[in-house]
């Protein structure tokens, strides 16, 4: 039952969008006492866990086990779903951890190019010409738009802390294990690693997937509400507590290793209980020099992409999948979103290719980019970052047969150059 709950939470976010293990510890001079209001949640429910680091240490408090997605398409698949471009349904063709070995897919290129699949997907011998799952996954790992050129220059987020508040994390995944400095849980229902957490962590700091592959990662797994009476009731007070926890942790970090940005892949709105507390906590974080990025925090949107083309080619990008039918007014910064390959929760060296990311995938991209900006200019502010991001952006045609323009597309190389030169 829990695996379906975890998937429900993950999809909701995409649309909206025991004793601690003392591994990978970092000794620090002191850590604030655990707030009483957080400690009290330990008795609230056996389903929702709160596990914090012991005094004077930053720890990995628990290691959620890998997820098993073989239930998505149990047994050998007998047919492949048909992709409907007119439908707004997400994940029409979900082939994660599925066995397709009995199928003849030689004439199903369009359907496969609109599918989700992972390292555990078993492919048949008969695949369409031009469809190479490994090649598509490798292209999808690239954060794109010249980010890797910045990495070659040593602009990797080194010395900058990124905090993420999301679902249960597969803490030992090769993409971010070395970058992970802290894993705690606050009101968390996830027993095993969820699909959302490894994805956002790898997009932010992943070795091959990430925008800021040498940034330090501080992670809190948290559930944004309570399941009861067959439904889910939003309660963002736990999210606020998680932000407050990050602020307290940041106070005892060395000067050159501070957390500069929090990534929350969720839209925070007035229809959610506790949203006022979240904005209060975000304000406190800002006073401590920490910028919080969430869905709707700033004017940005996500891009789609041709999965067969290089993400470094700006002309490979398109409108994002969920807004492809909308007229775009060129009033938001556009960053990569769809057709991304990220860390998978199914194994420490597994990857998953998502045809659609939703706004959830844009948030850690922005957070990673802000970390790069902080590395080259420690005095950068969110306001200056966004001003220069818009000034450095590019505009392209939506397609070869249209006069409609697509912009403003982020240009990471120009952006970092501008931020380096701010006096």
Q: Could you give a quick summary of the protein structure above?
A:
With 423 residues, this protein is of the alpha/beta class. The protein has helices spanning 2-15, 36-39, 109-112, 133-141, 147-152, 196-205, 237-251, 275-287, 362-376, 382-391, 412-420; strands spanning 23-27, 49-51, 57-60, 93-94, 115-118, 161-166, 180-188, 216-222, 225-228, 231-234, 259-267, 291-295, 300-305, 317-319, 333-336, 340-343, 351-354, 394-397, 405-409.
Nearest-integer average pLDDT: 89
Give the overall silhouette.
globular
Structural class: alpha/beta
H/E series, N to C?
HEHEEEHEHHEEHEEEHEHEEEEEEHHEEH
| Beta-strand residue fraction | 15-25%
**Straight-line N-to-C gap:** 55 Å
Number of helical segments?
A: 11
Q: What share of the residues lie within helices?
A: 25-40%
Radius of gyration: 21 Å
Strand arrangement across the biggest beta sheet: 2-7-8-6-11-12
Q: Main sheet?
A: 6 strands, mixed
Report the uncertain regions.
1-9, 17-45
Q: Based on DSSP secondary structure assignment, what is the total number of beta strands? A: 19
Structural summary, described in words:
The chain has 423 residues and is α/β, with parallel strands linked by helices. It is built from eleven helices and 19 strands. It has helices at 2-15, 36-39, 109-112, 133-141, 147-152, 196-205, 237-251, 275-287, 362-376, 382-391, 412-420; strands at 23-27, 49-51, 57-60, 93-94, 115-118, 161-166, 180-188, 216-222, 225-228, 231-234, 259-267, 291-295, 300-305, 317-319, 333-336, 340-343, 351-354, 394-397, 405-409. The strands form six sheets. Strands 2-7-8-6-11-12 form a six-stranded mixed sheet, with helices on both faces. Helix 6 (196-205) runs parallel beside helix 9 (362-376), helix 7 (237-251) runs parallel beside helix 8 and helix 10 (382-391) crosses helix 11.
